[in-house]
Amino acid sequence: MATHNYKVFSCFNRKFTLTEPEPLSDVQKAFSEFSAGASSLSADHLLRFLVEHQGEVDCTASDSNQILQQSRKEDRESGFDLHDFFHFLQHNDFNAPLKSQVHHDMNAPLSHYFVYTGHNSYLTGNQLSSDCSDVPIIKALQRGVRVIELDLWPNSDKDDIDVVHGRTLTTPVSLLQCLKSIKEYAFVKSKYPLVITLEDHLTPDLQAKVAKMATQVFGELLHIPQTDSLTEFPSPESMKGRILISTKPPKEFLESNEKESDDDVSSLPDNTNEQGIDDKSSPEYKRLITIHAGKPKGDIQDELKAAGKVRRLSLSEQALEKASESYGADIVRFTQNNILRVYPKGTRLNSSNYKPHIGWTYGAQMVAFNMQGHGKSLWYMQGMFRTNGGCGYVKKPEFLIQKGPHNEVFDPKIVLPVKKTLKVKVYMGNGWSLDFSPTDFDTYSPPDFYVKVCIIGVPADMAKKKTSVISNNWFPVWDEEFDFPLTVPELALLRIEVRENDKRQKDDFGGQTCLPVSELKSGFRSVPLYDENGDKFKSAKLLMRFQFR
User: Fold this and answer.
1) Which DSSP string corresponds to 299-324?
2) What's the pLDDT tens digit per position in 9-64?
């Protein structure tokens, strides 16, 4: 039994014993029920528990036997006793809150998926003066991001291409270096297609150089479409292991080259001297484009209703919010076949982010985020894409894909009746004593933890709850339950955050996670916690229970 000593005023020590909690009453009840009153849980008993209580309907007798073999102590041949069962429930490998495999239908068009999307993926920090590098691109790919954005500008000699945030003090990185890193890391986390969105400010000869460079670096990984008039996007499954290019066709770029790009800050004068641009265009460059992109040229409603070949449209978060006030249904219809990319407003100079539901509730597939802009909004984004095996593609709810008999579509502004209620029980937590030093939270005593439990989704579903504070305990037991009525559970995220109560200053951070409600596995679940950057703690976790009514 371990102890922690805390020195107070350099005069005397306070000694606290670290005592792990005994099995909780709900755990005891489940053990008694599924062991049929016996002192141990056999493989057959465990299988029934997994299927009936945990909802693991695909589990087999072989699975339950294997779990017992992996968990059994060397000197014990029988099944789980109560304490073994209690520790088993806290094991994330066996009782994770989400499925770890890809399980969505991946054969629908790309427009039917939310896609993990980066914004200005090359920036290491703020939008004005940070370095440009391939390092944040690599980190994004390692996290499963499937859309990388590169801004292309002529270098100082006008004979090569830099990746840089135009008209700012950001320092450039070469396009070739970015492409090589993208090739190396494109499919380390996910085998599903990687989309590179190009915001180019290049002369036709440099566009041709980009095409040659991409073709040479990516080789067979680069998808070259057979036609530039797609009536439907390919599926993630059909494009597995391929790199797709998305940008404006050269002619459309030339028509708008004097306009600012999607998110140029334009705080400094434009010294790029793009005098070489003329009516010529690069056919080599154009033939690489799988997803044709553009910005609204006139009335937004006309753009949303335009028929013909499928395409990608980009709107700022502000433009989307404004358009949704009058044309919400048109936006949803547009995203059923086309792709809508949403990007941060230009005033987010510190690389902060917006609430992703601004885009998701209208079916926007590419909700582009600053991956270096840590905070709650990025937690929501990371949480959404933890599902479906972390592959970076999440199938949109059917109501965002289907039309009604009278061409009606989902309207996020209409308050719908409650569809189901999520019951969340927070039992206990542990692992902080392994991930933190004894004085990381309090100098003179163990931490005083509490848990925030929130729903993020459509306005009618938003809710905040929190547990009581458990004082001076590295192994807090709350045993508290909360109900969340949900009208649109398919778009809801469960946000969980552990804080340490501090009476003198801001409460300390103790871990967080976000989980898509529609993907939650029922029953007892071991919920791993993540730090403020979204990196998983080695040990800190919560024991919780999820039920739907």
Assistant:
1) -HHHHHH--SS--EEEEEHHHHHHHH
2) 566 667 777 788 999 999 999 999 999 999 999 999 999 999 999 999 999 999 99
State if pTM tops 0.70: yes
Q: In whole angstroms, what is the distance from residue 125 CA to residue 353 CA?
A: 13
CB-CB neighbours of 193 under 10 Å: 27
Reduced to 3 states (helix: H, G, I; strand: E, B; else coil), residue 112 is: helix
CB neighbour list of residue 301: distance below 8 Å, 6 or more residues apart: 326, 327, 330
Count Cα neighbours of 498 within 13 Å in the Cβ-side half-sphere: 31
**Which residue in 388, 382, 405 sits closest to 529, CA to CA?**
382
**By C-alpha distance, which of 160, 140, 138, 165 is closest to 150?**
165
Contact 83, 23 (CB under 8 A): yes
Token readout for 248 is 């404006």
pLDDT digit string, tens, across residues 332-379? 999 999 999 999 999 999 999 999 999 999 999 999 999 999 999 999
Question: What span, in angstroms and rounded, lies between the C-alpha atoms of 375 and 165?
Answer: 22
Backbone angles phi, psi at 403, to 5 degrees: -105, 150
For residues 51 and 192, what is the distance between their CA atoms, to the nearest angstrom?
31
3 state SS of 91: coil
- Contact indicator for 315, 366 with CB cutoff of 8 Å: no
Q: Which residue in this structure is represented by tokens 């949109």?
A: 396
CA separation for the pair 519, 489 (Å, rounded)? 10
How far does CA 148 lie from the centroid of its chain? 14
Active-site residues, by number, are 119, 165
